[in-house]
């Protein structure tokens, strides 16, 4: 039983790392590419900041929301908005999540991407 638990934990950790790695790899592939190509593929930037060295930083932001089920035990029949009946007296109530991701791309004087950074809980 313990061996199965450890194996499941390791598998979950590796899957999480691999999805982050895939996204980082996809952003790495844009380094050296013209910013215009990135804009055609991903949409207009939400902001721009000019740097003293002639470079510029463009920001691309996305927001959204989702729901995460939260399980709670109950021995009675409950019928409330946002709650669905589970198995053997369990109730699943949805918890709203705010999702966001901001990607910053730094471009050189010729408009080619030289560096990137991202922040948020939905950047995978």
Question: How would you describe this structure in keywords?
Answer:
five-stranded antiparallel sheet, Lipoprotein, 41% strand, single chain, 28% helix, 124 residues, elongated, alpha+beta
Any chance you could write out the topology, listing elements then pairs?
Blueprint: H1 2-28, H2 35-42, E1 47-50, E2 56-73, E3 83-85, E4 90-107, E5 113-120
Antiparallel strand pairs: 1-2, 2-4, 3-4, 4-5
Largest sheet: 5 strands, antiparallel
Task: Give the count of structural domains.
Answer: 1
Number of helices: 2
| Outline type | elongated
**In terms of structural class, how would the helical and strand content be classed?**
alpha+beta
Q: Order of SSEs, N→C?
A: HHEEEEE
Count all strands and give the number. 5
Beta-strand share of residues: 35-45%
* Low-pLDDT windows of residues: 4-22
In oligomeric terms, what are we looking at?
Answer: single chain
Helix content estimate: 25-40%
Mean pLDDT: 75
Organism: Desulfocurvibacter africanus PCS
Protein name: Lipoprotein
């Amino acid at each position: 039983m313990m061996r199965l638990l450890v194996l499941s934990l390791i598998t979950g950790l590796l899957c999480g790392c691999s999805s982050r790695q895939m996204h980082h790899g996809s952003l790495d592939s844009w380094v050296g590419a013209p910013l215009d190509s990135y804009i055609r593929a991903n949409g207009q930037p939400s902001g721009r900041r000019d740097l003293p060295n002639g470079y510029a930083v463009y920001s691309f932001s996305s927001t959204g929301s989702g729901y995460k089920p939260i399980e709670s035990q109950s021995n009675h029949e409950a019928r409330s908005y946002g709650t669905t009946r589970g198995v053997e007296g369990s109730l699943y109530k949805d918890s709203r999540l705010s999702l966001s991701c901001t990607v910053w791309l730094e471009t050189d004087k010729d408009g080619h991407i030289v560096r990137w950074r991202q922040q948020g809980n939905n950047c995978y």
